[in-house]
Amino acid sequence: MAIKASGGSTSRTRRSRRASLSAIRSFYARFVTASAGVADERIVHAFAALPREDFLGPGPWQVEARGYISTGTDDPAVLYQNMLVGLAPERRINNGEPTLHARSIAMADPHAGDTVIHVGAGTGYYTAILAQLVGPAGKVQAYEIQPDIAARATSALKRFANVQVLAQSALDVPLPEAAVIYVSAGATHIPSAFLDALAVGGRLVLPLTPNERIGGMLLVRRESVAGFAARFFSPAAFIACSGARDDAHSSVLAAAFDTGGAHRVRSLRRDDAPDASAWCVGPSSWLSTEPPPSA
Prior knowledge:
This protein is of the alpha/beta class. It has a domain at 84-288: Rossmann fold. Helix content is 30%, strand content 24%. The chain has helices at 7-35, 41-49, 98-108, 125-134, 147-156, 192-197, 247-259, and strands at 62-64, 68-70, 85-88, 93-95, 115-119, 139-143, 163-166, 178-183, 198-208, 215-222, 228-236, 267-269, 278-281, 286-288. The strands form three sheets. The protein has a ten-stranded mixed sheet with strand order 7-6-5-8-9-10-11-12-14-13. Helix 5 links the parallel strand 6 (139-143) and strand 7. Helix 1 (7-35) runs antiparallel to helix 2 and helix 2 (41-49) packs across helix 4. The mean pLDDT is 94.
């Protein structure tokens, strides 16, 4: 004869499961940040505090491994690995690699009270981490151009009063002045709108990627009204950023990566004519191997 578990036993089992997941998440946070070379305890805490499963829909999940394979289980413990998880695999839309995002968020360096623009928010997992870091005094504007994905983000992020999800392109509207612009979609060039919205002292993190090629994560810091420091800090491959891709400039960017020297980039220039220090020339700005001019 089957014996039904008592209410108390069921409750204890649930508490034990939550405790186990919390421990797994804590280790995942420490592993991901350590692997990314990130020592900022604020970022470790943000990864440890947020259930990744809350942003990925019900399992089993599809994860990328030269194509997609199923996790074969709906146990959320399986999600706490350094892997891409499909949000819409048929469109190759993923929740991105945790180590790359940990490093990129550390480079963006969001602080309490900052205004952050997140472009390509997906279903909001990394948006939520940014929201944790800026706190209730800060705010995050999250842009996601895919309506169904944006709807999922709105639902997943409803408990974050400091987040606004916008189901549209960030390049179609005036942007507020921001301390951080965090882009989770690949661009072949740097949109002027992002540079215009960046506050002095602000940081832009953006994947600069040729078509169907590995590119690089670029950090741009606005040192003065006209001066921008810039450097690459990691290889990167992302889904395309709508409105920030151009086939002709993709070829120019691919040639620059093929030539090498990305590690020598030190600044972004907007108003000067490209000179011998130019590494790659875009439609409205260019990357230079020289430091930014003095203010």
